[in-house]
Every structure is written in C-alpha cells, then in structure tokens.
Amino acid sequence: MPDYSETDNLDAQVVRVIAQTQRIPAGNISLDSTFEELKIDSLDGINIVFALENEFGINIPDEGVQNLRSIRETVEGVRKLVEEKSQTVPPGAA
Amino acid sequence: MNRVAVTGLGLVCALGNSVAECWPRLAAGESRINRMRDPGSPPYKFQNGAEAWDFRPLDHFTEKEMDILERFAQLAVVAAREAVAQSGLQFQDGLGDRTAIVTGTSVGGQFAEEQGYVRLYRENNPRVAPLTIPRTMSNAGASRISLEFGIHGPTYTISTACSSSNHALGQAFWMVRSGQVIAAVAGGSEAVFAEGLLRAWEAMRVVSTDVCRPFSADRRGLSLGEGAGMVVLENWDRAKARGVEILGEIVGFGMSSDGHHITQPCVEGPARAMDWALRDAAIAPEQIDYVNAHGTGTQANDVTESRAIRSVFRQKADSLLVSSTKSMHGHTLGAAGAIEAIATLLALRHGLAPPTANFTRPDPACDLDVVPNHARSASLELAISNTFAFGGLNATLVLKRV
C-alpha cells in the first residue's frame, strides 16, 4: 500500500479517485472545488465514498458522508481516518 | 373511446440499431442468429445467439451515463429516442404530464446483479458496488426515458417473462384509448447474455444447439436474443391535427392466463388471449390477414400455438399468413412483444409478411402457412402479434394498417 504520510500525496490521491469516479479530468478539480460546482450529487457521493474506502482501506461512517460539501472537507476526512488507522497497532505487531 | 395511432417506432436488436436497419433484413429473411461472442467456460451447450451485434453503447452514452445505466436500460433508451424522434413530440405545455411510459423486461439488470454475486460469493468480498440497486431495477429504462424527455405521467414496468412488453403495449394502448393519457412511450428491452442467466437457460433444455427453426419439423428449441422495441402511441385525433405521419393503429388487446402448468403450454390459454383481443377490437377472425406468431421454435410451443390459431381462426387458418420473426432476431424475452409488434406494423405498412427463416421441412403438427424462408407480398390490413410467457401468461395485440 502506498505511503500517505505526505500531505500532497494524499490530496492528489483523493482528487484522482474522485476524478476517476466522476469520469472528469483531475485537472478540473481543486481543493477549493465544491461538490455543487463539480455537479456531484448524492448518488455520485456514495460512489465516491465507496471508491475512497477501497483506495485507502478505511471505513467512512454514514453520518460523515452526509456533511461533505467540498473536496477539502473530503481530503481532511480521509486524512483523519487514515491517521487513525495508522495509530491502531495490530495485536502482536509491535 | 379514442382511436390509438402509432406515430413513432424504435428498434435495436440483432438485425440492427434502427427500424431502417432492421426492416430490410426482416424482409429478406436474414437470420442474424450467429455464434455468441463469448462461448462460455466451460462452453455452453448452445453456441448460437442473437446479440445486438452492432450496438455500441459509447455511440449513445457517456461513460458516466453508462455507470448508472445497465445494458437492458441502454437498449430501451436508444429505442425510445428513435421512436420519440420519429413522432416529433415535444413533451411541453402539459403534454409531458399527460404522457405515459410503460416498459417490459423479464430479468432487468442482470449483469449488475451477477457482478454483485461474483464479488460476494466468488471473491468473498462483501462490498457490493453502490449503484447496484439503481442499475438492476427493472424500471431503470422507464425512469431514464422519463428523465430524458420530461415525461411525467403514469410510468411503470411490467415483468411477465416473455409477455412483458406485449403487456406493456396493451396497457399503454388501453390508457390512450380510454383518454387517461394523450400519448405513451411503450415497449420493452432485454439483455440476456449474462453468464448466470445463460446457465439457467442451458439447464432448462429449451435453447437450440442449432439455430431457431420455428414450425420446422427439425426444430430443436429457441435462440436467445437481446434488444429493445419502443413505440409512441398517440390519441388519433391529436396526431391527425398536428399532421404527423401515422404509421399504424392499435385496435385491440387481449390477455389470459393458462392456469395449467408453470412451463408447459396449452391450447386454451393462448386461444383465449387471441379471442379476447379480437373482441376488444370488435373484429371477426376472418378479417385478420397476418399473425406474427410467438413461434419460439420449441417442440411444445409451435404445436400448441398452431392448434390455438386453428381453434380461433377455424377455416380462415388455411389462408392466414403466420410467421415467426424470432427465426431472425431470436427470442428477446421481455422485449419480444415490442420487437414483434413493430415487425408486424412494418409488415402491414409494406404489404409484406416477413418469413419464418431457417425453415427446412414442414411439421404436420404445425399445419399452417408459415411463410417459409421468403417474405410474401400480400394486401395486409389487419394482423395480430402473440406472446405466450413461461408461467402461462398470454397476450395478443391487434394491429391495423393505415
């Protein structure tokens, strides 16, 4: 699995997943883009969340999904879940 | 009661991507039942099918649209676009609210469903794709047609196996005739070449290892096909008033249930559907010139359908032209009624009964003029189109030349 500790890498990765799912060029997406601007509706949203979960090996809770409005919020949400995951040391893996 | 005009036709099947592409092949008796592109692994017992060979989804939809539209829904939408374009209808100024959409499909979004099962049961991955529900739902085509054209009247989908789209056309016809709606987009679609479904048909032992040869003594079963047929139905007076070309008329519809056996056909059920359709049209059996038969090419169907036709038409059965166009475009299950109703309307329009292709030699148990291999020119005024579904559900439309 790639290393997401570098901020730029994670940003770019989230943008790439959203671009692929929405079938739009990654260049059309900036951190400041809102879902509304990108014409991402609720159905697109569940598709994107599914793809992000697959990409990062995380579990995005339903209540978190409903509040997402922008790429920046999405990146921050993903970063938080990735960090939480990295802090969870599997038993016996010291 | 209002007369019901047909003002648009749309067709996608093994014979082509439009009415203009399909009709010359129907008229020429050209069977497009060929070797399936995927022979299966291990190979299916049958190797022939009637895929929509020339249908390329990317010619009609963006990748994003295809993510949400399954193949059966894509076929429905493309056929509806052709039919609506021909009708010239714009669903503005309240017409959209008074227009219905009724579609038929037997299995709906089979590919998406099977992909979900592959994940679950083959890959042991419990994460099924999030668009599986809207992709598999049988009304996906109807709903997309509503969205695309701004049609907001009664919209629903009927699933009655091989009678699905004949039931859909009949329901839409009755709605326009009664004045419940002014117009309707109706028909059906099916995409059958999904592995699980093909294995299920294989196990039924009704698919021909040869090609489909309806009414022929050496027939060995049906050939599966995919495709869609859609028509625009319209209040006759309104169609006349706006000066659009009227392509044909639906004058009657009848249906029945065998209540006999879940898969074995009987004579009485189909006969009742034909009889009710003629009564609904207030037409005597002697007036019918052409029958587009259900004609699947199975031993059982073709014998019972021949007997049912004899029981309804009596002496007239000797001079009736009866053909099964399934010999060319395959058995398209939920789309069969719509595709064959369109073939029937075209036959009336051109004064040419399309043949039963792949015919080799007569079966004494199917003692009708089945128009073997070569189309027949004739003055055709009135015709019926039959579908008889597994489950014993029968439907017959009565169509009239304009």
Compact overview of the structure:
Chain A has 94 residues and is mainly alpha-helical. Chain A is built from 4 helices and no strands.
Describe the structure.
- The complex is a heterodimer of chains A (about 90) and B (about 400).
- Chain A has a single domain, classed as ACP-like (Non-ribosomal Peptide Synthetase Peptidyl Carrier Protein, Chain A), CATH 1.10.1200.10.
- In chain A, about 55% of the residues lie in helices and about 0% in strands.
- Chain A is built from 4 helices and no strands.
- Chain A has helices spanning about 5-20, 40-55, 60-65, 70-85.
- Chain A starts with 6 loop residues before the first helix and ends in a 7-residue tail after the last helix.
- In chain A, about 20% of the residues are buried.
- Chain B has helices at about 20-30, 65-70, 70-85, 110-120, 130-135, 140-150, 165-180, 195-205, 235-240, 270-280, 300-315, 325-330, 335-350, and strands spanning about 5-10, 35, 50, 100-105, 155-160, 185-190, 225-235, 250-255, 290, 320-325, 350-355, 375, 380-390, 395-400.
- Chain B has 2 domains: about 5-240, Thiolase/Chalcone synthase (Peroxisomal Thiolase, Chain A, domain 1, 3-Layer(aba) Sandwich), CATH 3.40.47; about 250-400, 3-Layer(aba) Sandwich (Peroxisomal Thiolase, Chain A, domain 1), CATH 3.40.47.10.
- In chain B, the strands form 3 sheets. Chain B has a 10-stranded mixed sheet, with helices on both faces. Chain B has a two-stranded antiparallel sheet with strand order 2-3. A two-stranded antiparallel ribbon of chain B has the order 11-12.
